[in-house]
Recover the amino acids of this structure.
């Protein structure tokens, strides 16, 4: 069985690992996301050391974005216009490819996680589904007709406009581009900005969670109406609050109001909107899955 | 070259035609959408007569919905839960298949139109795009990764929640399920309900159109963030008001606010959101394209 390397490149930390799948993650290193030079060197050093024990067949990189995942583009493998300091217009794949000399799969963190869930997690056997992460930001990846969705570039689901309930919620949203878009109203910083408390310190019975579920459900209904996914997987730090799931199920159900006559939506909402099957490993296993896919025609 | 039949089954009229493509539509008949029995008999009679001259290789049906387009489902080929009188839970494909004995392609009207635009119109050469119709209702079809999007069932883009500008617009929306969803605020009946005048009687300089463009743009931005289409094609009676296009372009551009760094969105909006290449024939040619596709493996 081929051995793969994976890089989960997040906004705050890098996770590098080698393995063949969820039952076989052999080594892992984590370090903070600083400059591209530092992070890329540390990743290369880790994989070189690992490859001395057993060669890597391919490497996957699942990165924060926006990125250029189009192999035909001159800036393929770049982090493009991120507001993150030091990282705008960074060639991510190039130096790693040169140093390691193996095929590289490259995509957004959320498309990677979607592929990992398809391969080993909560999306096995499906061909059209969505993976969302709700943490310091809100991002979504998707598989449609058995392939990851890119289209024009890649989805940017966090930036959908949703109805803002100004009467109940005077918080203006934190997105520097759109203010009160989906991310601006419902990612972690919105909870903190609105209530003055970090999300994980807000008790489950606090009204914050009903409002959070309401906003999350609005975006989910948009996704259901547009992409018609067979399942929606929701991970990320905010979703570690497991009590959010039933609130979200109720909100989505009542917003759809029976219009879409699908048994999954009418009777099985709790198996339709679910946490990641791979738990906190969804990210790094997604990167391993991207490596595996890079070997396929 | 094989000869195909196509049925564009709309909420108000049926269009049946035979041909091989846009340059070769040989015969066409139109009749009002009454009961399933009447409409299906009229369609069968037309195609039987046509097939006496030259046999049909396949037939395509592009239908108002919701429909069941899943060939593995026991209710494949049905119009399912439509509020339209007489048509709920109607087997549409079954009796036509029995009468004509040819392969039948069956999908939503908007997925059909998307396939027609891909085959002969404004989406040639793309693999991920959206086709919208804005008329008495608002519906969307999509191709992703070179195949029509079905997923759970099929998209229902008209029923997305969008921000309702209550200050400028006290009109409550006309959707019987969701009130002020995208369709409820921006399809033809919303224009008439809000302004008291049929859409085609509202002059181009009337403020109705700026508000209409604003609402349409909100849904378009949702679609761009979620599906990442390479192009969006907008047809239907409301979009016959060609002066809407530049208003929509401006609204989408300002709502995105430069976040998605794609040349199509930043510089070429007027070739990104476009009218159908097949004009008013997008519907019936979509049905012909579904017939053609039914012959392919």
């Amino acid at each position: 069985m081929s051995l793969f390397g994976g890089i989960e490149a997040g906004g705050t930390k890098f996770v590098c690992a080698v393995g063949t799948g969820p039952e076989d993650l052999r080594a892992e290193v984590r370090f903070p996301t600083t400059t591209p030079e530092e992070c890329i060197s540390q990743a290369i050093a880790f994989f070189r050391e690992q490859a001395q024990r057993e060669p890597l067949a391919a490497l996957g990189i699942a990165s924060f974005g926006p990125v250029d995942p189009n192999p035909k583009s001159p800036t393929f493998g770049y982090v493009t216009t991120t507001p993150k300091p030091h990282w705008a217009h960074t060639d991510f794949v190039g130096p790693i490819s040169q140093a390691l000399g193996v095929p590289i799969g490259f995509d957004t963190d959320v498309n990677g996680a979607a592929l990992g869930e398809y391969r080993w997690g909560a999306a096995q056997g499906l061909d059209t589904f969505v993976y969302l992460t709700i943490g310091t930001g809100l991002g979504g990846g998707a598989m449609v007709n058995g392939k990851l969705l890119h289209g024009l570039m890649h989805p940017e689901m966090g930036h959908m406009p949703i109805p803002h309930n100004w009467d109940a919620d005077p918080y203006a949203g934190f997105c520097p581009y759109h203010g009160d878009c989906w991310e601006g109203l419902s990612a972690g910083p919105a909870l903190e900005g609105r209530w003055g408390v970090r999300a994980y310190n807000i008790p489950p019975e606090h009204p914050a969670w009903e409002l959070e579920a309401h906003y999350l459900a609005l975006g989910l209904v948009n996704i259901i109406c547009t992409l018609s996914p067979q399942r929606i997987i929701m991970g990320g730090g905010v979703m570690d609050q497991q009590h959010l799931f039933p609130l979200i199920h109720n909100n989505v159900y009542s917003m759809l109001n029976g219009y879409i006559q699908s048994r999954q939506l009418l009777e099985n909402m709790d198996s339709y909107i679910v946490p990641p099957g791979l738990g906190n490993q969804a990210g790094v296993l997604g990167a391993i899955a991207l490596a595996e896919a890079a070997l396929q025609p």
